[in-house]
Specification:
Distance between the termini: 82 Å
Shape: elongated
CATH class of the largest domain: Alpha Beta
Number of domains: 4
Number of helices: 19
CATH superfamily of the largest domain: P-loop containing nucleotide triphosphate hydrolases
Oligomer: single chain
Number of strands: 25
Largest sheet: 8 strands, mixed
Strand content: 15-25%
Structural class: alpha/beta
Radius of gyration: 30 Å
CATH architecture of the largest domain: 3-Layer(aba) Sandwich
Helix content: 25-40%
CATH topology of the largest domain: Rossmann fold
Length: 625
């Protein structure tokens, strides 16, 4: 290596440490952020050792010499300053001649800003960051101060997402969609973007929209633990982070976390006092009319991040987003529908599929265990004299009746209008018999039901979930154990505490849910999903399936499942044919699950405003049958 090459190795490192990309001129693209081009071509076939660009516009040069050269010599400065006046017309510039001149021999760095009258060279022994240069030159470009994204601390898909997102915004886009598989770290990616835009891009406030309140708490935790910052300090010690919990947003809040429903209530000036999960549904029966004087100005947010954006930004709710018409929008989803892509102008900056994530080892794949019974495959019959529990869904009234007339029911009606406890017991018994004899049969795994693999069961509704919990206790001999199997639904009380317990406690082995843990919730030790309800919505099915894909370290897994060895896959136990049924993509804003509650008054209001989707009454009739 020649002396000059040795000097350039150190100079390259100085640039990279300051947030610059160092590249050859054949690989330069104007869409890149801070770039130092080696042997940058100038007029009259001159070459600058390093030709410096900020956001596609030239700002300066660096003249490199070998270690033995005295860079304080006049001829070195004269050579570099001549280069600042020889910029080809094919390049854009922030100033002409270029203001910034660096001189270095790999041992020291001299710097001069030619914009300052009578300026002299100062020994700084480093390279300025893009943010410093933007401030120094008064550059107005909002994204000019962004340093190059570094791969350290980021997965490849996250690095690609951030890099392409910033490139998209720098080139004039104001909406961008990130498609990242469940488990790939969507929230971490969004927090990274928020930090970079707040710290380097002159943004003041970010709105982080979540689908449900418990996911807002989860996101708040991510902001608190995020340390991929300049200083290594947590995000929330550098920028204020606040969940919307009252009628006041703290003045120092740079990040506001909320559901779109709660934000709408805030804009109307309504009191916000609850922090429950059951007040956040994606659908709405009310007409969204913004007040004449909303509680926040239209330019309050510079950036809006929309988590699970395939669900909550359509129909009337879109008016809330469109009110903040100066903000740039980032959508996060693992399951985009066509309308989602259209909303974000088909500007998909990353498309990282579940299949790719499994190949990369980011997620684990599913192993299907199919349970078929006579009734789940062919239906059944209710005979005269059978004792039945009849539940009136809208009043909650439960009564035991004697069936007066024999009737057949199809497999589609099983566990929809009809919940058959005998079938629940049979499925759970089959699972119990198979879990250590056919599923988890590795020799390292002791067949201990006290440490049953963490199991999540998807039920159709509250009544179904209640039956499953009761029968699971009986099947596993846990009638007097309130921890082994528990329900996590909107009616279960503190759902956050229940989720934490399911994630961390050895005693809590089976959770039963309807939709609350179906999307977004991260329970890495999960090894089994049992579908006791069919799911015809493709996005919802992928989200539910994604609960089992999370990877986990062997030691962490054994902390909650002591007889486990390693998680290299999970089991999807299909008791209803969910892996075989035809899936559809629902219209945005339509209810993707069976849990929507609607009064007659609200139903009539929706009819009046034309808000009911095609086929609504056919669907309603099927549910009420």
């Amino acid at each position: 290596m020649t002396p000059e090459e040795k000097a350039r190795v150190k100079i390259d490192r100085w640039f990279e440490d300051a947030g610059w990309e160092v590249t050859d001129r054949d690989h330069y693209t104007p869409a890149a952020t801070a770039v130092a081009i080696r042997e940058g071509l100038l007029e009259n076939n001159l070459e600058a050792d390093y030709f410096l660009f900020i956001n596609g516009k030239a700002v300066g040069v660096l003249e490199a010499k070998r270690k033995e050269v005295d860079i304080t010599a006049d001829y070195v400065a004269e050579q570099a300053e001549h280069y600042t006046r020889a910029v080809p017309c094919c390049y854009q510039t922030h100033f002409n001649p270029l203001p910034l001149v660096y001189l270095s021999n790999g041992e020291s760095v001299l710097f001069k800003n030619q914009e300052k009258e009578d300026s002299a060279y100062d020994e700084i022994n480093r390279i300025h960051s893009p943010k410093e240069i933007v401030k120094m030159l008064g550059i107005e470009d909002q994204f000019a101060g962004l340093p190059v994204v570094k791969k350290r601390g980021l997965r490849d898909c996250q690095f690609e997402a951030i890099t392409e997102l910033e490139k998209s915004f720098r080139t004039g886009q104001n909406r961008a969609l990130m498609v990242l598989a469940t488990g790939a770290g969507k929230t971490y990616t969004a927090v990274t973007a928020a930090y970079r835009f707040l710290n380097y891009a002159k943004m003041r406030r970010v709105l982080f929209l979540v689908d449900r309140n418990n996911l807002g708490k989860q996101a708040e935790g991510e902001f608190g633990t995020y340390r991929l910052t300049e200083t290594g300090d947590p995000f929330n010690t550098i920028f204020g982070v606040s969940r919307l919990k009252s009628a006041v947003i703290p003045k120092d809040a740079n990040v506001v976390i909320s559901t779109i429903q709660r934000l709408f209530a805030f804009l109307k000036g309504e009191p916000i006092t609850t922090d429950n999960d059951d007040d956040e549904e994606s659908g709405t029966t009310e007409d969204i009319i913004l007040p004449p004087n909303p509680a926040l100005p239209q330019d309050y947010f510079d950036l809006i991040v929309i988590d699970e954006c395939h669900r909550s930004i359509y129909g009337n709710w879109k008016k809330v987003l469109e009110y903040f018409n100066t903000a740039r929008l980032i959508g996060l989803t693992a399951t985009p529908v066509p309308e989602t892509k259209a909303f974000f102008n088909n500007n998909i900056v990353v498309n990282y599929t579940l299949e790719k994530s499994i190949v990369d080892g980011v997620n684990v794949g599913a192993r299907i265990y199919r349970i078929k019974t006579q009734e789940t495959e062919n239906g059944g019959a209710i005979r005269v004299g059978d004792k039945l529990r009849q539940v009136t869904r809208y009043t909650g009234k439960v009564e035991t009746i004697t069936n007066r007339e024999s009737q057949n029911y199809t497999k589609e009606e099983l566990n929809r209008s009809i919940i058959n406890p005998a079938q629940i017991k049979l499925i759970l018994q089959i699972y119990k018999d198979a879990v250590y004899s056919e599923m988890f049969i590795e020799p390292q795994r002791e067949p201990n039901f006290g440490y049953l693999p963490k199991t999540l069961i998807f039920a159709l509704n509250e009544a179904h979930a209640n039956n499953i919990v009761k029968i699971a206790k009986e099947v596993f001999g846990k009638d007097n154990d309130d921890k082994f199997v528990q329900k996590i639904t909107y009616s279960s009380g503190d759902s956050d505490a229940l989720i934490r317990s399911f994630r961390n406690d050895k005693e809590f082995r089976i959770a039963v849910t309807c939709t609350l843990v179906a999307t977004g919730t991260d329970v890495k030790p999960l090894e089994v999903l049992i579908f006791m309800r069919d799911v015809r919505s493709e996005p919802l099915y992928i989200q539910m399936k994604g609960r089992g894909t999370r990877t986990i370290g062997d030691d962490v897994l054994r902390n909650v499942t002591p007889n486990a060895f390693s998680k290299d896959s999970f089991f999807l136990v299909d008791a209803v044919g969910v892996t075989e049924s035809e899936k559809t993509v629902p219209a945005p804003g339509e209810d993707e699950g069976p849990t929507e509650t609607i009064t007659l008054k609200k139903l009539l209001e929706r009819m009046t405003h034309g808000e009911l989707p095609d086929g609504y009454f056919k669907l309603l009739a099927a549910r009420l049958a």
